[in-house]
Amino acid sequence: MTSKYLQQHQLNTLKKMGDILIPGDNSLPNFSSTGCLSQIDTVLQATHPDDVNALRKLLTVLCIMPKQVLHILLPGILKLAKLPGILGTPFRQFEFATKGLLMSLYYSGLSTDFNEYSSVHSKIGYQVSPPRPIETPLNVKRQEG
Q: What's the whole-model pTM score?
């Protein structure tokens, strides 16, 4: 998988983080098995460049950590996000940036095929129907301009 915003080591780190925070269970798939990471550019193209750069830096720092350390670090940071006021602010920002991004990808319904619903939607019984076109009632006369 390639991205025009993230390098391969950053994508690998994001995938590791996704599998830690969204490990799946008997009914739902884990993060990486959904293929949703392939849509990262769709999300990042609408993201402010400063936020993308901050994400790149964070993922570069986290990429040197073994998965076992990430298993301890990520839940710990999410607990620190509950600290009140200014003490918890950087941890809340971390949570919003990482968990928000991963959850958005996971539940987006996008898989490796952009128009195909992911296994997450089918597992939770969520189905989106396209809107029906609005029909003009037969008894309404159109005004000609």
A: 0.77
Closest C-alpha among 10, 6, 31, 22 to residue 119: 31
- Structure token digits, residue 31: 């993060």
The CA-atom distances, in angstroms, between 52 and each of 16, 70, 89, 113, 122 are 18, 21, 19, 24, 31
Distance CA 79, CA 92 (A): 9
Residue carrying the six token digits 């009914």: 27
Q: Which residue has the tokens 């884990």?
A: 30
Phi, psi (rounded to 5 degrees) for 64 = -85, -10
Question: Counting beta carbons within 10 angstroms of the beta carbon of residue 15, is it exposed (0 to 12), middle (13 to 18) or buried (19 or more)?
Answer: middle
| 84-103 per-position pLDDT tens digit | 999 999 999 999 888 889 99
